[in-house]
């Protein structure tokens, strides 16, 4: 089969997505019951010209903005029924492009209430 | 610290000012979203994609490849053990949520991304498909007597081929050219060798009868003479393309001695192994006057072996070998465990592997032995 990679927009108008990348896994507290949708994860701060911090729960991560050497395209896979036939056709559409990400590589620094940590 | 305020989504992160902060939440529709994929692409590929020139090709049971106009890429999924929080811009269709403007939301945890690795086009299948129904004299005769739609042949249009063969358009075209295929009635065909022989011999005959020069054949003259002999005009023109080259300055065609002589060498040998002397005799008889058959012309098309004091020669065409290096070397070493470079090289010349030179190929797939520093190196399987 031949699947054309489509995009509804030109390169310049393509919507820009981004990524916040952390080492490890973000988890909800074990006492939390329910779904995570709409739950706040943490707070991202652009603290310094080249430094970002991300505070999740009692941890603070430090990181920086990285421009991707090779952009990432965000593709959406669609299954369409072509008119007049019962066959499903797969289509791939470019829905966004990612040119930079905020990368956190350091060990999380524990924060204690009342102090800002060292 | 100030809130960045008025906009949400990816823009809020990308444009986050120094001293500003923003909360990041899970999107109201956070989930696995397995239909959302990340593809790493260099800037050239990005342009190609936005110009609509990129397709994925392959059959359901194969690994898909990505094709631009001229290159073919294998698609590899590379996992990332880090947590990649994927954040779309606010107001992304399909992922709308209330108060979108003021939220930065993660739609998905991306497990990794797809990477592209340039590969050689997979053209072996092309030959196999077209060889299912080579065009022969019988079919042409029948076609003149019955109407279309009665053929029970496996026939492929360009579109059929593009849907099945994992190669870019340009590579597919080159593949068809190397098979001397011709498009007739919308179907791509290879011509049966004995039928092609008939057409060529008639072409040569007519040239001699009309005192035409092999170096300056007029296409119209050639075609009309062959049509008069009841050959289809497309095949007449095709014959010129297979055995000749265009001389654009004078708008004529020149027959290439190597291609014509090679054709007759193959006719003489058939499936047999012949004594070299007998072959040379028979071959010279078939070669048209004015052309000279030199054994070097048959490089990559025939092999010789010594049986006692005799040298025998037989057909062994590079075009019958697999196009991928691993399989090519496997077939070559199965046929003959040890090769001298001068015999081996013609069978490797056409191998083009991205990122690998001939040296690299030899290093990867062969073992090299030299009995003395000044002796010919011998290559065998690794």
From TrEMBL, chain A:
This is Chromosome transmission fidelity protein 8. PANTHER family: CHROMOSOME TRANSMISSION FIDELITY PROTEIN 8. The lineage of its organism: Eukaryota, Viridiplantae, Streptophyta, Embryophyta, Tracheophyta. It holds the Pfam family Ctf8. It comes from Eruca vesicaria subsp. sativa. InterPro entries: Ctf8.
From TrEMBL, chain B:
The keyword Amino-acid biosynthesis does not apply. The keyword Cell membrane does not apply. One of its GO terms (biological process) is DNA replication. Keywords: DNA replication. It comes from the Eukaryota. PANTHER family: SISTER CHROMATID COHESION PROTEIN DCC1 (PTHR13395:SF6), SISTER CHROMATID COHESION PROTEIN DCC1-RELATED (PTHR13395). Belongs to the DCC1 family. This is Sister chromatid cohesion protein DCC1. It comes from Eruca vesicaria subsp. sativa (Garden rocket).
């Amino acid at each position: 089969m031949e699947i054309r990679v489509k995009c509804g927009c030109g390169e310049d108008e393509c919507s820009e997505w981004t990524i916040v990348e952390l080492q490890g896994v973000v988890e909800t507290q074990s006492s939390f019951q329910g779904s995570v949708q709409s739950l706040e994860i943490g707070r991202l701060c652009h603290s310094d010209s080249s430094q970002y911090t991300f505070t999740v729960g009692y941890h603070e991560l430090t990181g920086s903005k990285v421009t991707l050497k090779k952009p990432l395209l965000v593709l959406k896979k669609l299954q369409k029924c072509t008119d007049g036939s019962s066959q499903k056709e797969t289509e791939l559409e470019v829905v966004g492009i990612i040119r930079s990400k905020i990368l956190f590589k350091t060990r999380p620094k524990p924060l204690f209430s009342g102090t800002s940590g060292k | 610290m100030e809130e960045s305020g008025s906009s949400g989504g990816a823009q809020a992160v990308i444009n986050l000012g120094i001293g500003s902060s923003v909360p990041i939440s899970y999107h109201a529709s956070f989930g696995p979203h397995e239909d959302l994929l990340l593809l790493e692409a260099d800037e050239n590929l990005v342009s190609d994609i936005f110009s609509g020139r990129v397709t994925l090709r392959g059959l359901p049971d194969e690994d898909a490849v990505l094709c631009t106009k001229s290159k073919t890429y294998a698609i590899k999924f590379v996992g990332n053990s880090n947590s990649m929080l994927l954040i779309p811009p606010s107001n992304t269709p399909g992922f709308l949520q209330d108060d979108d403007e003021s939220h930065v939301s993660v739609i998905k945890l991306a497990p990794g991304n797809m990477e592209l690795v340039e590969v050689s086009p997979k053209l072996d299948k092309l030959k196999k498909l077209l060889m299912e129904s080579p065009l022969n004299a019988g079919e042409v005769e029948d076609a003149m007597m019955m109407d279309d739609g009665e053929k029970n042949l496996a026939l492929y249009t360009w579109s059929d081929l593009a849907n099945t063969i994992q190669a870019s358009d340009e590579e597919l075209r080159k593949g068809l050219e190397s098979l001397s295929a011709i498009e007739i009635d919308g179907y791509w065909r290879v011509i049966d060798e004995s039928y092609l022989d008939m057409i060529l011999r008639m072409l040569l005959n007519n040239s001699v009868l009309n005192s035409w020069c092999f170096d300056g054949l007029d296409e119209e003259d050639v075609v009309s003479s062959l049509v008069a002999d009841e050959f289809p005009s497309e095949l007449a023109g095709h014959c010129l393309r297979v055995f000749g080259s265009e001389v654009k300055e004078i708008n004529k065609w020149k027959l290439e001695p190597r291609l014509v002589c090679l054709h007759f060498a193959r006719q003489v040998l058939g499936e047999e192994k012949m004594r070299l002397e007998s072959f040379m005799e028979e071959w010279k008889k078939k070669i048209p006057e004015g052309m000279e058959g030199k054994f070097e012309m048959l490089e990559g098309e025939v092999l010789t072996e010594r049986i006692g004091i005799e040298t025998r020669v037989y057909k062994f065409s590079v075009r019958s070998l697999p196009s991928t290096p691993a399989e090519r070397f496997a077939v070559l070493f199965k046929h003959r465990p040890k090769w001298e470079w001068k015999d081996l090289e013609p069978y490797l010349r056409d191998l083009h592997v991205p990122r690998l030179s001939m040296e690299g190929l030899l290093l990867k797939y062969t073992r090299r032995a030299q009995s003395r520093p000044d002796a010919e190196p011998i290559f065998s399987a690794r």
